[in-house]
Design a protein that fits this description.
The complex is a heterodimer.
Chain A lengths: L4 E8 L9 H16 L8 E5 L2 H4 L19 E5 L3 H13 L5 E9 L6 H5 L15 H16 L3 H15 L13 H5 L3 E3 L2 E2 L8 E10 H7 L4 E10 L14 H12 L4 H4 L2 E3 L5 H10 L8 H6 L16 H4 L6 H14 L13 E8 L5 E8 L1
Helix pairs in contact in A: 3-14, 6-11
Chain B lengths: L20 H12 L4 E4 L6 E2 L15 E4 L3 E10 L12 E8 L6 E4 L12 E6 L10 E6 L1
Antiparallel strand pairs in B: 1-2, 1-3, 4-5, 4-7, 5-6, 7-8
The chains are: A alpha/beta, B mainly beta.
Chain lengths: ~375, ~140
Amino acid sequence: MAKRVGIVDVAMTPGEETKDNFLDQVFKVTKEVLDKAGISREDVGTVISASSDVFHSGQSCANAYYWDAGAAMLKNGSRQDGESLFAFIYAVMRILSGSYDTALVLGVCKGSENPENDMITHFYTDPFYQRPIGINETIAAALQKRQYMERYGITDEQCAKVVVKNLGNGLRNPYAHVKKRLSVDDVLSSEYVMSPLHKLECAPKSEGFIAMLLASEDKAKKLTDKPVWLKGYGSSLDSFYLGDRDLLKGELKNAAKQAYAQAGIENPAKTIDMAEICEPYAFQELLWCEDLGFCKQGGGGKLIDKGVTEMDGELPVNPSGGVLATNPYVSRGLYRLAECFLQIRGQAGERQLDKKVKTALAHGTHGFAGQCHAVAIIGV
Amino acid sequence: MSKEFSTFKKVIRLPHKYGAGPTFTRFYEGLKQGKIYGTKCPECGDVLVPSRSMCPKCHVNLSEWVEVSQEGVIVSWAQTDKDFFGKPGQGTYTVALIRLDATGCDFLHLLGGNLSKVKTGSRVKAVWNEEKKGHMLDIKYFEPK
C-alpha cells in the first residue's frame, strides 16, 4: 500500500448478556478507546459503524440512534450493514482519501435482546423462491457441511475438534461468551440441530460492542508507540441463490488472493503467524483454512488432526475462541481483527501465543454458506 | 438472565408486500399448471430454475423460456424432526439442493416419500399437490425414485 493506515487501539465488550443498555454499551467502548489513545471526541475525524439494526436490534432507525454515543455527533459518519470487516475497510479508505487523520470503526450488536439467529436469518432469504422452503443460515450450513464431508471425506470428528479447540481457547479469553472444556464425544452427542449439524457445532448468539481507532501513518505514530499496520485487504461476493453456487468453491480464495498480493505474501502458511477466522459453524473453519491457502483443498481435516491450528501449533487459528465462542453477528469480523491486533501487540493476556506474532490474518463472512468474505492482514 | 433493571418486551409486526415482477410471476403461473419453468442464458447456455430475469454469471437479460425436467439428482440435503421458525408443514423436514436434468443450477426444495432412500446422488422426481395455488409448495416435495 502506498500510504499506511494504522490501528491505534481497540475496546470491546465481553459476549455474555450485560445489564447495560444498547446506548450505554456504545458509549462505553467509544469512550474507552478514545481514553486509551488519549484523545477526545473532537479529535475523531470520521466514524464508520457496522450494525444490522432492523433485525439485530429492532431499536430506532439504524445508526441514527447511536451516533452521539459513538462520537459521531456534529461530524461525518456512515454505516455498513452486514459485516464489520467491511466497515473497517470503509474507514481505512476515508483515511486514505486524505480528508481524515483518524477514523473510529464501531461494531454494534446486542444479541441477547433479539430473536434467535435462525429466526432472523430466515428473513435473509428472498420471499419468492427460498423463504417458502423454510431455510435459514443453519440449514444452508448443513447443506454445505454434507457436501464438504462427502466430497473430501471430512469426518464429524474432525469438525468436532474445531469446537473442542475453540471453546477451550475461549477459557483464556475474558471477552469470550461460551467457554468450555469439551470432548469430541460431547460435541457429537449433542443433538442434531439440522442433520448433519450438531448443536455444539453451531455458534451461540452473543453481545458485541467494539470500537477500533484507526489513523494515518503520521498520526498513528503520534498516538501510540505500538501502531499495527494494515498490510493487505481483499473481499469478494458470490451470487445470492444457494443453488447458483458450488458451496465448496466460494469467494474466500479470491478475497485472500487480493489481500496476499497487497501484503506481498507468497506462502501464507509460512508467513502468517496466526489467524482469526469467522466460523459460525465448526466445519467452516476447516473449509476456510483451505480457501486461505493454509493447506490444500480437502486438507482441512488433516490440518486439525495434526494440531497445526492449536494454540501451540505452527499456525494457531482462533486463539480467541472464534465465533463458536462469541458470535456478535455483524461485529464478529472486527472482533477477529481486534484479537489479531492484541496478539501482535503482546496484549492478549492469558491467551497470548507463545511465539512472536508479526503478521496476522482476520477474516469476516456474512450471507448464507459464506456468500461474502473479507480478509485483512495486519502486522508490524 | 433476570435483569436487575427494567426490560421492555416488544413484538414488532410489520406488513410488507413484495412485487414478484413478470419473470417470477410467470414461474408461479407455470406451477399452477404443474410445470416447472426455467430461463436460458444466451451466453453460457445455462438454464436457471426457478426462472430468473438475469444470469448472475454473464450479467445478461434472460428471455428464453424452457420447461424443465421434473426429475433430477440430490446434490446435498439436510434433515430435522424438530419444529423451527419458518418450517413449512409438520413432521420430518428434509430439504435438498436438487440438480434438475439439463439445468445449470441447483433447485432448492423439500424431499418426501420414502425418506430412507434419500442420499446424495439419489434420483428424485416432483410430487405435486392436487390443488395448485401458484406457490413454491404446489410441488409437495421431491420423492426418491
